[in-house]
User: What shape does this take?
Amino acid sequence: MSNPQHAFYGAVEAGGTKFVCALGEPGGPLYAQASFATTTPEETLARVADFFLEAQMRHGPVAAVGIGSFGPVHVRPGSAQYGRIARTPKLRWEGVDMLGEIGRAAGARAAIDTDVNVALLGEARHGAGVGYDDVVYVTVGTGIGAGVLANGRIVYGFAHPEVGHIHVPKPAADAAFAGVCAFHADRCVEGLASGPALQARWGTDAASLPPEHPAWTLQAHYLAALCVNLLLVSAPRRIILGGGVMAQAHLFPRVRTALRELLNGYVDFAAYAIELDDLVVPAQLGGRAGVIGALELARDSTNTRS
Assistant: This one.
């Protein structure tokens, strides 16, 4: 049995495709980890319970568990719906008490946030956002989402921000593309620049498109337009772009160039000692960001406990 000197925590990265469960220390080693497909709530949550039962029998009890969940999910503490999945295309999951079910499965205090906010925590404290209090983390993959950290705190309103559905200008070169968003078609960045949008427009996935393909000029435009909105609304010191589509390293200089062109001199970066190469950067933690951030969320929940 492991006997770590410091308290350790549970993490659940609850994705629409797969769940990842872990026991470990924030920013430290993992003592146990498991990954399995997201199926029905009953089957999937039973596997979460099995993981925590077996892992805690071997390693001891966790102090708390952090959950990064697919959404939409109610994340306002005090709300009657706090911790439950909101309206979602995954119909059997709508209304599921993710917070309560996983807390009971782990037998511990639980805290929940969106999957992208939890990844933001991971990157802000252990990845590309270290040293900054004002950070935006954007994931570009099956969907597009973002978490916003301002003055060291994650930003919420009546719900979590839905950055992927910000409307962006569509150039004439892309006029024929209908978009893929079920709600906004070709008017939001998710409908135009997500992984499924690339697949629908070009007939292949992002990984199969060579660097010289015209897809990347359009992609850089849309991501730069998103960055303009984020920059002007929240003035972050760092915008971190992650997710499967951003595995294309050549895309970053294109986005920075397009961002400068779209701003057209409006922001005087030199006055704030900002270099574009340091403003728009790739994620550092890759697929580990969610678990690392969920462990941080768990630790935060014990530090703020009343």
